[in-house]
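Can anyone check this?
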Amino acid sequence: MSRQTIRVASYNIRKAIGTDRRRNPERIIEVLNEINADIIALQEADRRYGRRVPAIPHLLLEQHSAYCAVPLNVNADSMGWHGNAILVRLDAQIHAHDALHLPCLEPRGAIMAEVETNDHHLRLFGMHLDLSGLWRRKQAAAVIHAAALGREMPTILMGDLNEWSANRGCLADFAHHYRFAPCGRSFHANRPVARLDRIMYCGRLELIDCGVHESSAARRASDHLPIWAEFKLASA
């Protein structure tokens, strides 16, 4: 990967519970290091109940990876917002961040960060959408609206969309505004049959390559496999 490109990834880490039903954050960090992305959107990054502490302890992430979480300043105990977190390399500059409230039946949210890394200034959204198709479409509309606000810049949206269809529902809504990286099937990690995890991007970026990270560690660490995409700025 050159300085002219940027590599992003999206990963539902299932609170660090692997396919063996054991919670092991060290395995998640191993996978994050394998992916070697500049920016990673995580889903289910915090415990669901109680203080909602991070599934990956801050000290563990600090000592065994080159990443830190974008500080959302929402819950001092959590890594993210409703389980969504964005990780960036330690040398990245974070210019803005926000937690988005999404219409929902159960607690759902999305997050945004404006990040400068590898000479790219990008706006990133991470999300984990609802199991209900109706609420997914409402949530997609809220994210699309938020992404249209502010000054125009290269934008990437990533996350677990929970959409089983190939091109309907919230996928059709996003497709009116963004392109999809054809990463591949990421769920279930033992036998991938569905493209629940997605990376979308605006016309100011050009897709170089993308895929599903299918290492043996990734197949054990969570029930989702991480997806990744590499971009460069589109020619004028």
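Reply from J.R.: I decoded it. The mean pLDDT is 93.
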